[in-house]
Amino acid sequence: MAGDGEEGRNKQVLARDYIDGNPKKRDMYFNISSISLKVPEGSKEVLVKNLYLSCDPYMRGIKAKIPNRLFLFLCSPFKPIVGYGVAKVLESGHPDFKKGDFVWRVTKWEEYSLITMTESLFKIQHTDVPLSYYTGLLGMPGMTAYAGFYELCSPKKGEYVFVSSAFGEVGQLVGQLAKLMGCYVVGSAGSKEKVDILKGKFGFDEAFNCKEEHDLDAALKRCFPEGIDIDFDNVGGKMLDAVLLNMRFHGRIAVAGMISQYNLDQPEGIRNLLSLVYKRIRIEGFTVYDYYHLFPNFLDLVLPYIREGKIAYVEDTAEGLENGPSALVGIFSVQNVGKQVVVVARE
Amino acid sequence: MAGDGEEGRNKQVLARDYIDGNPKKRDMYFNISSISLKVPEGSKEVLVKNLYLSCDPYMRGIKAKIPNRLFLFLCSPFKPIVGYGVAKVLESGHPDFKKGDFVWRVTKWEEYSLITMTESLFKIQHTDVPLSYYTGLLGMPGMTAYAGFYELCSPKKGEYVFVSSAFGEVGQLVGQLAKLMGCYVVGSAGSKEKVDILKGKFGFDEAFNCKEEHDLDAALKRCFPEGIDIDFDNVGGKMLDAVLLNMRFHGRIAVAGMISQYNLDQPEGIRNLLSLVYKRIRIEGFTVYDYYHLFPNFLDLVLPYIREGKIAYVEDTAEGLENGPSALVGIFSVQNVGKQVVVVARE
């Protein structure tokens, strides 16, 4: 970095090692480093001040060794935690960004970041909604819901939609988008409180507590006497196996994740794939990275709903980078109510 | 049926009962009935003389009780076997068909049939190829190969294609179509002889005997060091599980059947579905019934290949309806060499 620039004090959250399983507080530590507050001469990098950092379920070490995983890594030893966030541009060597712009996407858990991979930055064009929303409802989780539901599931008005892990940041939005287009929507969640919120605040037609249903097939048959057209699957495992028994002809299943399987040494066997043939069902796994080109379409759909108050959204904020590690750890034992955001600075 | 028409003697193959599992000779018996050789006054039915009957792997009783199965039923007690076939129109009440037309699709195992479901009849427009081909290469198995490969798998030149059960009537054609469009093609089959024929006569790049490979994952890695783009799956079970470990990013799997699972009391568990998410894979089950509107497109593609001798195709004919039951039974222990056809009459 240029030695002739102004130097700034930069508080950081670093990883102690690669993380195996859900992160714990002892996996992270604080550091004060210094950062040049100038973009290197001639580079196209962008210097930002981080405002809001996102705590997301994907930020866990995944035990299963999958070659060529494309997920973002939570951490490398002695490096800052990497994650989604909203930031303000302080200086830019890139023609697409200028001082004062707000941006979102991949950044680091520190006060200031020099962003080299500027192709992974989005300029925030709409600032009449809270900037922090670009970590959740208007960010990666929102795009995941949008891409999986609209692009993979081709929903039609009146169809029967099931959302597993519906209380999660993605599931909440899938359910609400499905309701807004006139579908019948049922969600599963892991507690009575969440079930009540799904049916109350988020407007799901029905919801059930998957931890209290000893027979998932029976629970689905009770909620879907006509069967399921669309399954937005976050869970995999036994829930997916039960869903397969309840799909309708030409049903579509979008698989955004399989949280029931990540921490198992050996994944559970899915026994009901014969339904694929008998009922002509499509299952498709996806990651949001393939769909960011649709971000403008997503905003066109969702921003009006937000402005009209048609989408419910709750944030849980932790104030200050020093509260970041406990906020991140908390989402894996669901300490948070709503989207967990770490506020580094408000502007 | 009208009592005033001319009556004909009609030899039939009837089912003794519902069939559980692979059909056996004792499940069928012969009968001589009489049939009016006139179409009932004012009806839109079509009276045909059956020429070629098709013996297909789907013609088994399937133990698994799947609600709303849409498969054709092999049999009802004391009724003629139902199946695909080629026939000649003797008389027609339907404006789309006239005396002397050749037709194919669903008919019965008897000399003469009065076809009421005329919407399931195709008129044969091209008679410069053997009529019997419309039971196989140009009929349901051919359409299954075409729809699954082109419509579901969106193949591109140079892609890596795996066909399980490649020696079957569908698999043979999928492999040849894939080769004709410039893909790399590997098939699995159940004997050394079949493997040799796949690589020799049918031009597969590679093939292996799945009964001699104790590690299917290793066999696939040997044949596909770069991974698999397209899997045309006829087998399911362990083979599908091994395929999932070897798929490339954005791979596509068309599931035409799961023959490894039909006769099991409890289907095997598939453990590697996490690959769907990590590699953004699509799996889709299908049945040919949804794709018959593409029959003209299929003929446009395949007829020139047949006329130019670019597709290898072998038929095994059983002469006479009286040899039908043993021919049908034979395909389940693979007594046939090539497509098994029963010749009722040659014109």
From TrEMBL, chains A, B:
It comes from Quercus rubra (Northern red oak). Residues 11-117 form the Oxidoreductase N-terminal domain. InterPro entries: ADH-like_C (IPR013149), ADH_N_2 (IPR041694), GroES-like_sf (IPR011032), MDR_fam (IPR045010), NAD(P)-bd_dom_sf (IPR036291). Pfam families: ADH_N_2, ADH_zinc_N. Residues 170-302 form the Alcohol dehydrogenase-like C-terminal domain. GO terms for molecular function: 2-alkenal reductase [NAD(P)H] activity. This is Uncharacterized protein. Keywords: Oxidoreductase.
